[in-house]
């Protein structure tokens, strides 16, 4: 087998696609700390007004109109070249999927906004369909018919598959990411401030396994000292270049 590369992406890869980050200097939560409540699980489950606000806020997100940028497409090329074994992402914008990366390599550490589920019966919904009906149903509830309840609708609260505060990460997501990050030939961190755990812990895990680490981020991170290569350039320029150079150095994988 040829060279293998594991990747962790954060908000920085999507800012060039028009999606503001949360924690950077101009981040949504840096400027509006009160808006973190949009993703508070307890509040969402217990308060109808909070749910309606959360749904409305998510509907207005630039995510719905965003298209993958050149950086996203570069990672799709890396997978096509047979080198990408892991694409763990802290983003829930589903842009890696739209760019052409496969579910074989993508691990959505913080979930995805593309799908939603009923918190009671587990029925899955396409979030875009819910958003289309949001004016008629500002507080969406599950419409699945329950045969053992006289065919009445379930009525459970529906929530997007984004991981909210107070909610566990998707099952097996960190375990799979740790395994692949520590067994790859290289580990790249693209556009993550490395402030959010457990995702950030992938860096020391890879370092301990002796995997060379590249951190590509405009700002500094707490794990810069563990990196073999630091790249402080715009991601939309630096990542396509890094991918192309890596593929060129490893032809015929």
From TrEMBL:
Transferase listed as a keyword: yes
Gene3D superfamilies: SIR2/SIRT2 'Small Domain (3.30.1600.10), TPP-binding domain (3.40.50.1220)
Every Deacetylase sirtuin-type domain range: 1-253
Alphabetically ordered keywords of this record: Metal-binding, NAD, Transferase, Zinc
Active site, per annotation: 110
GO molecular function, one term: metal ion binding
Name of this protein: protein acetyllysine N-acetyltransferase
Organism from which the protein derives: Bifidobacterium coryneforme
Species classification: Bacteria, Bacillati, Actinomycetota, Actinomycetes, Bifidobacteriales
């Amino acid at each position: 087998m040829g060279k293998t590369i594991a990747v962790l992406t954060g908000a920085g890869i999507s800012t060039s696609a028009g999606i503001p980050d949360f924690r950077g200097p101009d981040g949504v939560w840096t400027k509006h700390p009160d808006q973190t409540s949009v993703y508070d699980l307890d509040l969402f489950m217990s308060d109808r007004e909070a749910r309606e606000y959360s749904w409305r806020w998510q509907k207005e997100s630039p995510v719905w109109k965003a298209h993958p940028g050149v950086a996203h497409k570069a990672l799709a090329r890396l997978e096509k070249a047979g080198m990408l074994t892991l694409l763990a992402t802290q983003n829930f914008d589903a842009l890696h999927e739209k760019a052409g990366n496969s579910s074989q390599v993508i691990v959505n550490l913080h979930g995805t906004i593309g799908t939603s589920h009923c918190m009671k019966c587990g029925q899955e919904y396409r979030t875009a369909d819910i958003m289309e009906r949001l004016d008629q149903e500002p507080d969406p509830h599950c419409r699945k018919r329950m045969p053992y309840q006289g065919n009445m609708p379930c009525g459970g609260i529906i929530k997007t598959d984004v991981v909210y505060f107070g909610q566990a990460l998707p099952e097996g997501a960190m375990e799979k990411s740790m395994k692949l990050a520590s067994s790859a030939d290289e580990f790249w961190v693209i556009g993550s401030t490395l402030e959010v755990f457990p995702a950030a812990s992938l860096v020391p895990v890879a370092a301990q396994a002796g995997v060379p680490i590249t951190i590509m981020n405009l700002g500094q991170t707490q794990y810069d000292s563990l990196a073999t290569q630091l790249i402080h350039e715009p991601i939309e320029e630096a990542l396509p270049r890094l991918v192309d150079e890596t593929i060129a150095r490893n032809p015929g994988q």
